[in-house]
Amino acid sequence: MQPGGKKAGPITMEMVARIAGVSQVSVSRALNHPEKVAPATLARINEAIRATGFVPNLVAGALASRRSGIIAALIPSITNITYSSFLRPFIEAMRQAGYQIILAETGFDEQEEAAMVQNLLSRQPEGILLTGVNHSPDCRRMLLGAGLPVVEVWDTSESPIDISVGFSHVETGRAMARFAWQRGYRQAGVLTAPDQRALRRKDAFCSEFIALGGAAPVEHVCEGSASIKNGREGLAGLMRNGFTSGVIQCSSDLFAHGVLIEAQARSLKVPGDVAVIGFGDMDFAAHTVPKLTTVRVDRDVLGHTAADALLKRIGGHRLTDSTIDVGFKVIGRQSA
Amino acid sequence: MQPGGKKAGPITMEMVARIAGVSQVSVSRALNHPEKVAPATLARINEAIRATGFVPNLVAGALASRRSGIIAALIPSITNITYSSFLRPFIEAMRQAGYQIILAETGFDEQEEAAMVQNLLSRQPEGILLTGVNHSPDCRRMLLGAGLPVVEVWDTSESPIDISVGFSHVETGRAMARFAWQRGYRQAGVLTAPDQRALRRKDAFCSEFIALGGAAPVEHVCEGSASIKNGREGLAGLMRNGFTSGVIQCSSDLFAHGVLIEAQARSLKVPGDVAVIGFGDMDFAAHTVPKLTTVRVDRDVLGHTAADALLKRIGGHRLTDSTIDVGFKVIGRQSA
DNA sequence: ATGAAAGCGCTAACAT
DNA sequence: ATGTTAGCGCTTTCAT
């Protein structure tokens, strides 16, 4: 330790203040409410900040102000574009509003999710983003008890914890069935991942297709997540299960793409022998051969809407509706 | 306010302590060092915690202990599987070590990155993950000044800020050129995204291919990011630039997949008319028709290695090497 | 416009 | 094994 030197450690507002010849509070003001500081003083303070390379300690700031500036986001899978694509605009919108995001991956596991929520709550987040509307009772209770803004994304709910932003998976299933029916398909198969939302779309597709007079669709539920590989295996699986021709409703464009490739490998014509409807309108959907018929959900809008709703709630506003439906659209291209 | 009631607000350790009939510190101990608390006391405290639903305030804890339990991670793009796929194991490893992640997306912009680093530093992270080794001078200076553990991922560097974990992009380029040469290709094209690492792979491929005696490759640099769409357009672009046949080195498997599709649309045989080498060995690479020849980098290993290295540095260890090369492997399949 | 005083809820010594 | 005393670095009154 140097003679006469203060003890080591980070640069604090106190040090900056001493250099600028003001009190510590003035430095705080200069940073948070510059309009309340005389221009000359402000200039001296800013110069001292620059000279020292001072970086404010937001941990201390958060404790004192009781505002963490943190939003917690939980998504099932980071690598799954379905979720990362609405997370991106969400994070960006939050960043612009001055918030930072703590991210956690649940792996589609409600117990993990509940444990993570508890962990995240200890960071005093000002809001929470959850994926889907199915959460463990513990999780719901904790969140309700914490009384902070929560937005559930990617689904609509009759009884959201706080607010939900998404669309009706049941309606997409019905819409796909009607679309297939109108295009003349009377036989169908369904190829789906085992997650709750995909299964709801599948069930809705099947009942609507049958209600319209179609044959009961052949089903194949893949283990694991949506991928081209599983899509290829899925077509094989469907054919083993008795699917011979008709339209296949896939729970993801990735599955649909896999079906396209497997059909090509088997010299099956698409949509002549096998027709395909995907889900998601992912970036490649308009660029396969043939182009994919699919369901579009605007994930940019989803992320932004979720962020806006959360920010309003954080700001103390009540929302007119606790559920926001961003809708969806069946995009008819060439594969069905 | 109720008569006799304390003022409202969050449940604190103080309240839990009162209920359990102990002092506030004992509650802190019960949570952080349970072995230092008598079993009977511990039981009473835990019961009080359960009864109140107490969630510790880590913001206060972080301030007092000067350990935030936070790691900051900056990646170029959240939706790009190249980056999310090493982020996932990284986050998981960090979670198991008790850390939470604050995530920010730089959009491949060094200025944005520097600004975000400054913002993130105010959260007092115990470590930082950066993507790549190209950072603005400001950014380097801040990080060096902060003196905290930094791991740069996805590249190796001769002069890392702290530690780097990745592989040599130049070597992958050379390896692809040698591979192509050995398979008998004497004409080549390159299709690349405009990011720094992809360009280095491209340059290395070209110079090695020429050094071996091959013709100077036809080049096409895509605007925007790697995608099937851009891959299709890329093949068209290469042919406009004079590419007629040979092998195409792509900076991503997504480009390579796009080339496959475009070749199919143009009735070109792969690898007969056009051969393709991708990059990344993404999950679909072994399931296209034909299967993709590509370069594999184990992103799971990358994420875990980065986490381990960072944890060691946080623990105060010096590492034997400041740069860890996780290597790569050319995977010869059918497309080249 | 500026400063002094009082905490935010917790952990880290140092007692006992 | 448990409690007491001091802060951590900042924001928020409340004075001046």
UniProtKB/TrEMBL annotation, chains A, B:
Domain of life, per lineage: Bacteria
Pfam families in alphabetical order: LacI, Peripla_BP_3
Gene Ontology terms, MF aspect: DNA-binding transcription factor activity; transcription cis-regulatory region binding
Alphabetic keyword roster: DNA-binding, Transcription, Transcription regulation
Cited PROSITE patterns: HTH_LACI_2
SMART domains the UniProt entry points to: HTH_LACI (SM00354)
Transmembrane segments annotated in the record for this chain: none
Residues in HTH lacI-type domain copies: 11-65
Cross-referenced InterPro entries: HTH_LacI, LacI/GalR-like_sensor, Lambda_DNA-bd_dom_sf, Peripla_BP_I
Keyword Transcription regulation attributed: yes
Keyword presence, Transmembrane helix: no
Protein name in the entry: LacI family transcriptional regulator
Biological source species: Hoeflea marina
Organism phylogeny: Bacteria, Pseudomonadati, Pseudomonadota, Alphaproteobacteria, Hyphomicrobiales
